[in-house]
Design a protein that fits this description.
With 150 residues, the chain is mainly alpha-helical. It is built from six helices and no strands.
Length: 150
């Protein structure tokens, strides 16, 4: 009678920030697993929450949009609320522009709940279009290269 071979499953996560590093990482992991006698494994992209780099990009966008609106003469009162002149800040952009769109469109309160790219892209497109149409101000979403310089 053949011995029953039991397969056990383990989950190991590696976060690879740069797409170009993926092949190198796969090869190193394959060699390490093979050396340990493991012959089957699966690599799949991580989905879900945003990365640290995406979080930095999101907050850099808030800062850049606040600066652009202030430089163009659009304080909070002129853009969305009547009252006293209040300059834009990173936090006011997040709370008065980004979060209301995020909650209405995605039904998610915290930016930590956003999907890595899909959700961030969707909210950015809506906010950017609205501010561009209303104020003539458009700020591109920061790239990874830009974040490396800051």
């Amino acid at each position: 009678m053949d011995k029953e071979i039991r397969k056990r499953k383990f989950e190991i996560k590696f976060i690879i920030e740069k797409e170009g590093d993926l092949q190198t990482a796969k090869q190193q992991i394959l060699e390490e697993l093979t050396n340990k006698g493991i012959t089957e494994f699966e690599v799949k992209p991580l989905t879900g929450r945003r990365t640290d780099a995406q979080n930095r990009a999101l907050h850099e966008y808030f800062t850049q949009l606040a600066n652009a609106l202030n430089e163009a003469g659009f304080d909070i009162r002129k853009t969305i609320r009547e009252g006293i002149d209040i300059p834009w800040t990173k936090n006011s952009v997040k709370e008065y522009l980004w979060r209301p769109v995020q909650e209405a469109y995605l039904k998610k309160h915290s930016t930590t709940e956003l999907n890595k790219t899909k959700d961030i892209d969707a909210v950015y497109d809506i906010v950017n279009r609205a501010i561009s149409e209303r104020c003539g101000v458009s700020v591109p979403f920061p790239s990874i290269d830009e974040l490396m310089l800051t």
